[in-house]
Write a structure and sequence with these properties.
2 domains, 13 helices, mainly alpha, 76% helix
């Protein structure tokens, strides 16, 4: 079994870690905002730390915090978090060709730290779409780096929330960071369409109670993205048959 020292000196591991550093500033800003939000939402310090370490999904955490604060039913909170994280089902299917050969325990362990940005960096670094030597170590290096870039600022925000004035406008800074990350994910017509539909649906359903406009926006975006992908596949088939 590879030791941590050998892994740290592996060129693929180090390349994966280095590639994720491009996203570090945005991830750190968003993690800090999420940590402050958890601490100021009424969660106790131990619960906020536990949520940061176990949920490890900023969008799901921020979607559930207003629902927790408003006393929403537990099923609504779970449904909101589930809808926000449905994208990981698609991501896991895209990881399967490269990680499917690993033992189940290792796949489960890797499933925890892998984020959407890891998939983007991996696809850029290995554009062939085939399994190649060094890919798993590259993935581990990137996952470890992005986990630290999120958790350290998030925990800092939790512990120092009382010392961070609201006048600093961290919420706006976090929104800007999230927008930057979102634009990095929008690379084709389907994702742009899904983003536009999500924004429109969120505004249109803003009057719904318990922040349910978030759930509506997610459902609308998923439906739009699937319809666009289906239309593009149908178009390719038609062109191929012509």
């Amino acid at each position: 079994m590879t030791s941590l020292r050998e892994l740290a000196h592996d060129p693929h591991f180090r390349r994966g870690s280095r590639d994720m550093l491009d996203f570090a500033p945005g991830i750190a800003a968003w993690g800090l905002v999420t940590g402050v939000a958890m601490a100021k939402s009424g969660l106790s310090l131990p619960l906020a730390v536990l949520m940061s370490l176990t949920v490890y999904a900023g969008s799901a955490q921020l979607a559930s915090l207003p629902l927790l604060a408003s006393g929403a039913p537990m099923w609504v909170i779970w449904a909101a978090a589930l809808c926000v994280n449905l994208r990981f089902v698609i991501f896991s299917a895209q990881w399967r060709p490269f990680l499917g050969h690993l033992p189940r325990a290792r796949r489960v362990a890797l499933g925890y730290p892998l984020a959407d940005l890891n998939l983007i960096a991996f696809q850029r670094a290995w554009p062939s779409g085939r399994r190649e030597p060094g890919q798993v170590r590259y993935i581990v290096g990137g996952a470890a780096t992005i986990w630290l870039c999120w958790q350290l600022p998030s925990l800092l925000g939790i512990f120092l929330s009382e010392a961070i004035p609201t006048e600093w406008g961290l919420g706006f800074a976090g929104t800007l960071a999230m927008l930057g990350l979102t634009f990095g994910l929008m690379h084709d017509r389907s994702t742009w369409t899904a983003a536009f539909v999500a924004g429109t649906a969120a505004v249109a359903a803003y009057a719904l109670p318990l922040k349910l406009n978030i759930v509506v926006a997610i459902a609308a975006a998923v439906a739009a993205g699937l319809m666009m992908e289906h239309a593009e596949r149908a178009g390719r088939r038609l062109r191929g048959g012509a």
